[in-house]
Design goal:
The structure holds two protein chains of two kinds. Chain A is an alpha+beta fold. Chain A has four helices and nine strands, in the order E-E-E-H-E-E-E-E-E-H-H-E-H. Chain A has one domain (7-127): RNA polymerase II/Efflux pump adaptor protein, barrel-sandwich hybrid domain (OB fold (Dihydrolipoamide Acetyltransferase, E2P), Beta Barrel). Helices cover 21% and strands 34% of the residues of chain A.
């Protein structure tokens, strides 16, 4: 179920590296826990993100959830379609529901993230 | 945390739980939006057994409920329900509640779960009439059936009468699937519906009768998440969010439930003097003009001036935008006026709108 080619944070964001570009989103587990996503607040293109710091917010009917950057770098693309159709995060968390593309400067930051297997273990532990 | 007699039933339905007023209650079973829309278009089944029930009976009961209530309980006849507030001596709201009149000098008060002990202490403190006050919350379960299909479904299990003949804010004592039940045409959703009071020991039996019928009609069990968005759309206040011991009824837009003429009640003197001084706050309904969500506590601005705060706010599944109540300065704004709500440091546009936010059928 969990894509093997991605890296994950314990706070459930995923990162997909293609050269020096990293795409980020949230996992299927996270969207199914949050449910009914009605609003996504994302930074503008050009914003500099720092690994493990907040970069945006998603809101469900019930509550707001902070988003944390899996890697540092400059935002080079924002998924604008989420502004009008935030439910894409629920429907397609690994594909149409992506948030940002970031140009990274430090590859090694990705090593600090969880691989699919460790992430699976993490959510099993969290879910009890 | 306290649990209702239906806790295991919810657990078996894989409900996600939340803490509410000291109770471990189902927040949602599937999705809040799905549950919400199912009540608006079909039907939903709720466990509300956390609500408190207080019986006031014997000689002096008429007098006691009248002196406690801002609304005029002498307007009640047997089989009728009245929405009222209890105020303290300074006019602050102790609780908002329903009063059921079974008979002369025999009432049931239905109070908010988080306020059961406070209300009970207040009623006893004020009881100088000789009435007998009894907390029957533990022995009483409350299951609500709400939505356009609720009449048809309930009629399947009440052979002796047509429940559509029970008018809004009236109740009958009858049997539902042979279970002795108070069938009340009331609710907190703005939809046609019923609240069904049974003994705690019969709660599971009643749920197991109604649940399959609800599912067969493509309805859902409903958690507190959807209960909150349903009551908000219907323009109904929530104690603890929109009002508390320090707010008076006029400030929160509940002045029509305060009957000042030709009767005495606790808080009347303070409320008259507040009215004379002029009410400084008002409660308004607002709708966001962008997709942002205004949550309780967020600041409300008019032309750059802080005029109040959001008290309830959530995305409306029916209207597909965020709505809420805000407590603002009285003289601040006319209807349809634009306001701004500060969300995480940024101003987001909203407008003041009429409450209820949508017209429904009760």
């Amino acid at each position: 179920m969990i894509p093997q080619n991605l890296k994950y944070m314990e706070s459930h964001e995923w990162a997909k590296q293609e050269g020096d570009i990293v795409t980020i989103g949230i996992s299927d587990y996270a969207q199914s826990e949050i449910q009914d996503i009605v609003y996504v607040e994302l930074p503008e293109v050009g914003t500099e993100l720092t690994q493990k710091t907040e970069f945006g917010v998603i809101e469900s009917v019930k509550a707001a959830f902070d988003l944390y950057a899996p890697v540092s770098g400059e935002v080079i693309a924002v998924n604008e379609s989420l502004l009008d159709a935030p439910e894409q995060v629920n429907e397609s968390p690994y594909d149409e529901g992506w948030f940002l593309k970031i140009r990274i400067t430090d590859d090694s930051e990705l090593d600090a993230l969880l691989d699919a297997e460790s992430y699976q273990a993490h959510i099993e532990a969290e879910h009890g | 945390m306290k649990r209702t007699p239906l806790y295991e039933v919810h657990k078996n339905l894989n409900a996600k739980f939340t803490e509410f007023g000291g109770w471990e209650m189902p927040l949602q079973y599937s999705s809040i939006v799905k549950e919400h829309l199912s009540v608006r278009s079909i039907v939903g089944l709720f466990d509300l057994s956390h609500m408190g029930e207080i019986e006031v009976s014997e000689q002096g009961a008429n007098e006691l409920v009248q002196k406690l209530s801002t609304n005029d309980t002498s307007r009640l006849s047997d089989g009728r329900v009245l929405y009222t507030l209890f105020c303290n001596e300074t006019g602050g709201i102790v609780d908002d509640l329903l009063i059921y009149r079974h008979a002369d000098n025999h009432y049931m008060l239905v109070v908010n779960a988080a306020n059961i002990e406070k209300d009970l202490a207040w009623v006893e403190t004020c009881n100088d009439t000789g009435a007998v006050v009894k907390d029957i919350s533990q022995d009483t379960a409350l299951i609500a059936l709400q939505g356009p299909k609720s009449i048809d479904i309930l009629n399947l299990f009440v052979p002796e009468r047509d429940v559509s003949q029970i008018s809004f804010f009236r109740f009958v004592v009858d049997k539902v699937a042979r279970i002795p039940t108070i069938i009340s045409r009331t609710g907190y959703t703005g939809e046609t519906g019923f609240e069904l009071y049974v003994s705690a020991s019969a709660a599971e039996d009643l749920w197991k009768v109604l649940y399959p019928a609800v599912i067969a009609a493509e309805g859902h069990p409903i958690g507190l998440g959807a209960r909150d968005t349903l009551r908000l759309e219907a323009g109904l206040r929530l104690y603890g969010m929109d009002m508390n011991d320090d707010t008076n009824p006029f400030e929160v837009g509940l002045g029509r439930f305060v009957k000042l003429k030709n009767r005495q009640f606790i808080g009347k003197k303070a409320l008259l003097s507040e009215k004379k001084k002029g009410i400084t706050k008002q409660m308004i309904g607002f709708q966001m003009l962008d997709r942002a969500v205004a949550r309780p506590g967020y600041a409300v601005y008019q032309q750059g001036k802080h005029i109040g705060d959001v008290t309830s706010g959530a995305p409306s599944p029916t209207l597909k935008c965020s709505i809420g109540f805000a407590s603002i300065e009285s003289q601040a704004v006319p209807e349809t006026e634009k306001i701004d709500i500060e969300i995480r440091g940024k101003m987001h546009p909203a407008k003041i709108v009429k409450v209820p936010f949508l017209s429904t059928g009760t």
